[in-house]
Amino acid sequence: MRRSRSSAAAKLRGQKRSGASAAPAAPAAAASAPSATRTRRSASQAGSKSQAAEKPPSEKPRLRRSSPRAQEEGPGEPPPPELALLPPPPPPPTPATPTSSASNLDLGEQRERWETFQKRQKLTSEGAAKLLLDTFEYQGLVKHTGGCHCGAIRFEVWASADLHIFDCNCSICKKKQNRHFIVPASRFKLLKGAEHITTYTFNTHKAQHTFCKRCGVQSFYTPRSNPGGFGIAPHCLDEGTVRSMVTEEFNGSDWEKAMKEHKTIKNMSKE
């Protein structure tokens, strides 16, 4: 009995000792867990670094926008090469003074009067000369203005306020009712619309029947009777400058005979 009790007690003491010796193993396992975590973290960091090293640098670097204050304080970046090569803009033109070329004229005692006239009329020397020439060279004439229906063609012509109109009955004038008065070419000026003019000719091709491409109106043309002048349609003139009109019939259907019998029509385009 005593031997059995002592053996049982010895077994219990042995179990206690073995439990005590096995208990410290758990902290060791717990201590090994953080080291494994650190090992995994270092491995992941090494992997991310290797991936970052493998990525090529971006081709277009990011541009930093400078603030308005920074632009005011410093000159900033230089302009692009294509802008740097552009020449500087030209300076604005200097307006011509009314007496800019009066010093080149030998005006004598009329210089002061001439300069006063220019200033009053606000004209250059060329403008003042043109005004005087138009007044005296075309003395007794009126400056008429006119054009086609759509306004693409505009002209001015110096002629009498009392117009002498020819009503021709040739094949084309009869169809288009070509009533016109004749002036020398020097008294006619096309103001605009040269690119809108087209020309029709036939038979001898001496008469140049010009009309507007857009609206089809013939406001002037070059007549066969006066190739050195212009035939102007009075109904295409602006209102306010015509005082009276006298119409003369011209037998254009027998053109050669009519030209021989008429005494003045050949000289209508002469100065």
Automatic annotation (TrEMBL):
Subcellular location: Chromosome, Centromere, Kinetochore; Cytoplasm, Cytoskeleton, Spindle; Nucleus
GO molecular function terms noted in the UniProt entry: carbon-sulfur lyase activity; metal ion binding
Comp. bias intervals (Low complexity): 1-10, 17-53
One GO term of the biological process aspect: pericentric heterochromatin formation
Ranges for region Disordered: 1-105
Source superkingdom: Eukaryota
Domain called CENP-V/GFA: residue spans: 144-256
Protein name: Centromere protein V
